[in-house]
Amino acid sequence: MLLHFSPAKPLISPPILRRNSPVFLISPPRSLRIRAIDAAQIFDYETQLKSEYRKSSALKIAVLGFGNFGQFLSKTLIRHGHDLITHSRSDYSDAANSIGARFFDNPHDLCEQHPDVVLLCTSILSTESVLRSFPFQRLRRSTLFVDVLSVKEFPKALFLKYLPKEFDILCTHPMFGPESGKHSWSGLPFVYDKVRIGDTASRHERCEKFLRVFENEGCKMVEMSCEKHDYYAAGSQFVTHTMGRVLEKYGVESSPINTKGYETLLDLVENTSSDSFELFYGLFMYNPNALEELERLDMAFESVKKELFGRLHQQYRKQMFGGEVQSPKKTEQKLLNDGGVVSMKDTSSSS
Ligand code: NAP
């Protein structure tokens, strides 16, 4: 590309030079002006090589389920140079075009593109029906299937049940979403379990290439079995979503005197309120540990209430009957993971 500059108004102002400066002696004659820059040209061999290399190392990734989370992930996958093709129940052609992906409204057409990776981003609840009707026979036999569901034992079992045994399986959970990961993924946990990766170097390399996207974004990479993930996630993720929804129903609102703690609650509501109820219900239905956690939460709430009302009751009795009233012996209780209760210590003397 040639850039013509007016000789009267040079774009780069000449340096201020002293008369005896050595540079002055070799400064260009007045008529010499910049007429071209070294921009990347289509015939630039180096640029062409780079783009060939990018193409050869790019994965063709088929995103199945192009809703909230599918779109969020796709933007980053494209930024890392991968070729994205997508399919969803609803028509997302415009959304796909806007980020440089291609949308196929028919799953058969999507599969005939022979993607290296199929990335399942559908809701937890629809997973089985999606897999049951998916035209696997149109894919290459070595395809890598990846899921991002927020529960892990469930998709692992379905993959092992429905996928042809030649397919590779990688179960993952990016533990962040469009809200918590909107600025950066740096330091955010990415859990994965290489459930079944074929015994060839190219299959391992393909899996690593996929994981590298998250690694290069700065995620905290955690290799963990699906079973362990669900055990930990019930006590953290499910409880977080539940509290977010409870507080949303309660109606927390910003005020001019927000404390740091209150700001945390507002952030929690903001982080969880944009997720669909279907997602939340999926966390409850398909994490075998979620029901127990919900019961523990309920018991903990009751126990805190009891403690408050117990103290109030004592004060009331004091006022009614005067003098020292023998308070009943109190013991601090802790709820166990198995739903049981253990008495910790006598706390009546400390109050
Ligand atoms: P979601 O409500 O869990 O799932 C929405 C997606 O599921 C859409 O692509 C939707 O397709 C598809 N879907 C729903 N019902 C379907 C059906 N009967 N048949 C076919 N497709 C169906 O919301 P999401 O936030 O996008 O989550 C997608 C997945 O990512 C979930 O498995 C979730 O656990 C996981 N995930 C989400 C987050 C997050 O922060 N949101 C974080 C980590 C992992 P259409 O839109 O075309 O109807």
UniProtKB/TrEMBL annotation:
One of its GO terms (biological process) is tyrosine biosynthetic process. Residues 59-338 form the Prephenate/arogenate dehydrogenase domain. Residues 323-351 are annotated as: Disordered. GO terms for molecular function: arogenate dehydrogenase (NADP+) activity; NAD+ binding; prephenate dehydrogenase (NAD+) activity; prephenate dehydrogenase (NADP+) activity. Pfam families: PDH_N, TYRAAT1_C. Keywords: Oxidoreductase. InterPro entries: Arogenate_DH_2 (IPR012070), PDH_N (IPR046826), Prephen_DH (IPR003099), TYRAAT1/2 (IPR045011), TYRAAT2_C (IPR059064). The keyword rRNA processing does not apply. It comes from the Eukaryota. This is NAD(P)-binding domain superfamily.
